[in-house]
Specification:
By secondary structure, the chain is mainly α. The protein has a single domain, classed as 3-Layer(aba) Sandwich (Rossmann fold). 54% of the residues lie in helices and 9% in strands. The protein is built from 9 helices and 5 strands, in the order βααβααβαβαβααα. The chain has a 3-stranded parallel sheet. Strands 2-3 form a two-stranded parallel ribbon. Strand 4, helix 6 and strand 5 form a beta-alpha-beta unit. It is globular and about 45 Å long. The chain starts with a strand and ends with a helix. The relative contact order is 0.17.
């Protein structure tokens, strides 16, 4: 399975100490060089910078060629979409609405960070309620009400 990811999933998953679910779910995740640069930015949390400074063996950096300029997207998102298209990725992990829409319009299957966490919980890798509470304490833009609703649906499915 080929998975390409933007920076936001790493920012959130590192912050909530769940970045290893990516390896458990997908074995290998690819990111473009632009995403690697975003993760290494001094603007990022120290934990995120430390993660990308010594990346795990399951994370691979690969540059796409060419990169389509997509109105409204930053370089990392555009490169993520380009790499996913180039590799014919099974999924692209991207959170921002414009990026998700652009990826979908280009025929890519999209999953977001919340979807990754829900999949990890479905497979018994994490306690979804506990992790969602941690997500609420980050600066990830997601409604606490949305997380509560998703958790309730998860619990209902598990019955």
């Amino acid at each position: 399975m080929i998975i390409v990811a933007d920076s936001s999933p790493f920012v959130v998953l590192v912050a909530v100490e769940c970045v290893d679910v990516l390896a458990a779910l997908f074995e290998e995740v690819l990111i473009p060089l632009q995403v690697e640069s975003e993760l290494a930015s001094p603007k990022r949390l120290e934990a995120v910078r430390a993660f990308i400074a010594t990346p795990p063996s399951w994370l691979r950096v690969q540059s796409p060629d060419p990169i389509e300029r997509i109105e409204g997207l930053h370089a990392g998102e555009a490169a993520t979409i380009a790499l996913a298209r180039e590799l014919r990725a099974d999924r692209v992990i991207i959170d921002e609405a414009l990026g998700r829409r652009a990826a979908t319009q280009r025929g890519l299957q999209v999953i977001g960070t919340i979807g990754v966490l829900e999949t990890a919980a479905d497979r018994g890798f994490i306690d979804l309620g506990h992790v969602f509470e941690k997500v609420k304490k980050t600066d990830f833009w997601v409604s606490p009400t949305f997380l509560d609703e998703r958790h309730a649906l998860f619990l209902e499915r598990k019955k």
